[in-house]
Amino acid sequence: xxxxxxxxxxxxxxxxxxxxxxxxxxxxxxxxxxxxxxxxxxxxxxxxxxxxxxxxxxxxxxxxxxxxxxxxxxxxxxxxxxxxxxxxxxxxxxxxxxxxxxxxxxxxxxxxxxxxxxxxxxxxxxxxxxxxxxxxxxxxxxxxxxxxxxxxxxxxxxxxxxxxxxxxxxxxxxxxxxxxxxxxxxxxxxxxxxxxxxxxxxxxxxxxxxxxxxxxxxxxxxxxxxxxxxxxxxxxxxxxxxxxxxxxxxxxxxxxxxxxx
Length: 261
Hints:
Elements: E1 5-8, E2 18-23, E3 31-37, H1 51-59, E4 63-68, H2 78-92, H3 94-97, E5 99-109, H4 111-122, E6 136-140, H5 152-159, H6 165-170, E7 184-189, H7 198-209, E8 214-219, H8 246-258
Parallel strand pairs: 3-4, 3-5, 5-6, 6-7, 7-8
Antiparallel strand pairs: 1-2, 2-4
Helix pairs in contact: 2-4
């Protein structure tokens, strides 16, 4: 396995601290890739939603990447631009790393799910298009809405204390789904008291209204931030074998979508 770190800085800013870590499987076979955005409320990076998740995708035959994006950037689009550049870099590296440029998924957790979904709905408006286009989204207990069911801390960190109505609308992602949005896998728990399950439900409803294929799993129990919901990623929130099935369900969905055995 090839593991290396690549600096991502789309605006050449001194305060941009994004870093992309590669997990490239050996051999020359053209493989789908999954780029992972850990959560952390746009205030920190939750490492337990990074490498351990990448290893699961690698075990299923995917190349994997983990993006440590800039948090509290003072520029609300900076994490989105970093992710956009990261996807473009993966797609341009087909000769070097053998990722299939037509089968690149972006996976995000919590605020990282908001970041992944932001690229999913806004990619075609950015300078990196179409190289930045995700072919699939994987959203784990994602922050989606800036409305009634918002996670206030994520939006405060992303948008600052005095966002304009236009900024709030742009980043309330249930209102931004369109025909450009890729097929999406979502999972959440009803018991999530940090990011309400309505976030996933709102995004799924918008996908349905726009006739975008999706798979949605709502598990009854489990707190926010379960990651893989197994002992390896347990930080005291508990292990949940039922919710832990999300990873296998996701891999099955992604392999079917990408026609990958």
